[in-house]
Amino acid sequence: MDVLFRNVKELVELAESRNVLISEIMIEQEMNITGRSREDIIAQMDNNLTVMEQAVERGLNGVQSVTGLTGGDAVLLQNYIAKGNSLSGELLLDAVSKAVATNEVNAAMGTICATPTAGSAGVVPGTLFAVKNKLNPTREQMINYLFTTGAFGFVVANNAMISGAAGGCQAEVGSASAMAAAAIVEMAGGTPSQSAEAFAITLKNMLGLVCDPVAGLVEVPCVKRNAMGASNSLVAADMALAGVTSRIPCDEVIGAMFRIGQAMSPNLKETARGGLAATPTGKAIAARIFGGTA
Amino acid sequence: MKFTSVFDIIGPVMIGPSSSHTAGAARIGRVARDLFGRQPKWAKIYLYGSFAETYRGHGTDVAIVGGLLDFDTYDERIKTSFQLAKEANLEFEFITETANKEHPNTARILLGDEAGEMSVEGISIGGGKIEVSEVNGFKLKLTGGMPAILVVHDDRAGCIANVANALAMHHVNIGHMEVSRIERGQTALMVIEVDQNIDEKILHQISLIPHITKVSKINN
Description:
Chain A has 13 helices and 1 strand; from the N terminus they run H-H-H-H-H-E-H-H-H-H-H-H-H-H. Chain A is mostly helical.
């Protein structure tokens, strides 16, 4: 079993010394570890991409969760974009609406692809399908986008954590946003180093984010956290492409996230006992849905 | 390394809303069924930590029952698994525990039928990935990423060699192996990760070896 990279530094050095994309390193490592063929691996990722496309489409048509807490915001955003007066710009809002669309489908117990988790499944496809309209990538490039997000996610998962129960929302939406930022940079023609800078810039700004789902549901605030995560990815990608760098290296940011996650109170790690879940309204919602006293 | 594949990160394809609480839960249920070797008639499901606190909101309960019915993470039938369990004559009960486990997302499933029972504890470590942490009171660490065989046996000299020989005869390569026992001279457990799925014939042959009491498997 041959692991090609254990941290971002090794990943970037390998891609740059061989003058290949990060996605290519990820594909080769997957072949090494699993013994599967390149075609087989790419076909599975292609299928995951199709699942993401279908979820976005379904969400943009409007869905409602069983509780009624979430659903329909992706439609509101698309209608607003269509008026042409948005302040933050069409591409950014398009990414936001598609991230929301995916998480609304997830909350409604629809079919999604976890990236890296279900609660954070909106950011990667949301940014991908928005950037797609600007960069016109081939199908292969879109699949590569997912392998690049996977390469960075692989490092986070093995050196820190990717579950809210283990490390708070920074580990879920934080990781997803940083992974997406790195892949946006690659798709836009940036270098592997710039991908790593975009990753570091994004994650630094989401450190400490708690996991405090109201009533324990992956709805409030998860859906909107994916929206804001997607906007973070795009802004960080632009910063990295402009030549801005992070003073703290990528791998050290991941290490910081790990220690913050360990230090975080269990009340703030997906137990629905703290944060927004413990607000008067949060508790009232929980009581309304599951009975009992607020 | 806990995560080995890119599809641990970009994936699984699944029914929402939570990879650890829904997809991971479904996998724990399914692995318990795999190890039991058939569909159980009854199951008592103990939930710990974040699982216990938030299982209703995450569909953890329907997912585990779906797994016990052999549904994969993306199977739409997970949503109606309670009804389907009733139709399949599977009785189940959920018990929330307040004890602290090492991992916040832990479930212990006691399952059985008229022919026997088994206890399987699983943890959901993120992104839908799981580990089996205990079987019938034996601590172990099984990722489910590789096919594996579990062998319960009397703690006697030669048992481990006999099982290894049986596998060698069928050209099955052992990737990783752990042996443990609760008390010297009593019952012991072998956990053997192998490179390929094992067919029933080999399992049956192992079950005939003296001092072997139970053989079960997890396919990949």
